[in-house]
Amino acid sequence: MSEKKIDGDTPALCINNAVDNWLAERNQLLVQYFRLSGSRNNLSLPDGEQLNQFCGLLIDYVSAGHFEVYEQIVNACEVNGPESISLLEKLYPEISETTDIVVNFNDKYSQFSEDSIFERLDNDLSVLGEAIAKRVELEDDLIDTLKTKH
């Protein structure tokens, strides 16, 4: 039995594995986000190491999406349908907006050096949480398109 190819060279299984690994990383990110957010509810601040680890995971997740998964989805869409390309063109700018929020959060909180920065952490985590939620919804739309149409 031959393996289905997305673009003639890339097996569908490779894309599925990349997406599965990326979704596992997303789940890990969400768990860490809720842990970090939960420390706010306990009226305690996260320690710097916890915040740095979260920022690293956040950037790794976003980078994997942009430089691995989205590229594979684009390739599959280019080969397999103009409707998918149209959806991608609509969603990608919105995903990019969330990337800006992620990068700004990372720049502000990774390797921070002053405690006064924590004064804004609650609000910044809230903005980041909204961006992550929007991003997850948009990414799920892309993944659903990939799985149902390709």
Care to describe what's here?
- The protein has 150 residues and is mainly alpha-helical.
- It has one domain (12-149): Four Helix Bundle (Hemerythrin (Met), subunit A).
- It has four helices and no strands.
- Helix 1 packs antiparallel against helix 4, helix 2 (48-80) runs parallel beside helix 4 (121-149) and helix 3 runs antiparallel to helix 4.
- The longest helix is centred in the middle third of the chain and has 33 residues, at 48-80.
- The two termini are 18 Å apart.
Ordered list of secondary-structure elements with their pairings:
Blueprint: H1 12-41, H2 48-80, H3 82-109, H4 121-149
**CATH architecture tag:** Up-down Bundle
Order of helices and strands: HHHH
Tally the beta strands: 0
- Residue ranges: pLDDT <50 for 5 or more in a row? 1-11
Summed over residues and divided by their number, the pLDDT gives a mean of 79
What's the CATH topology name?
A: Four Helix Bundle (Hemerythrin (Met), subunit A)
CATH superfamily descriptor: Regulator of RNA polymerase sigma(70) subunit, domain 4
Assess the beta-strand content as a share of residues: under 5%
Radius of gyration: 18 Å
Largest sheet: none
General shape: elongated
Q: What is the CATH class?
A: Mainly Alpha
Structural class: mainly alpha
Distance between the termini: 18 Å
Number of domains: 1
Instruction: Give the number of helices.
Output: 4
In helices, the fraction of residues equals over 70%
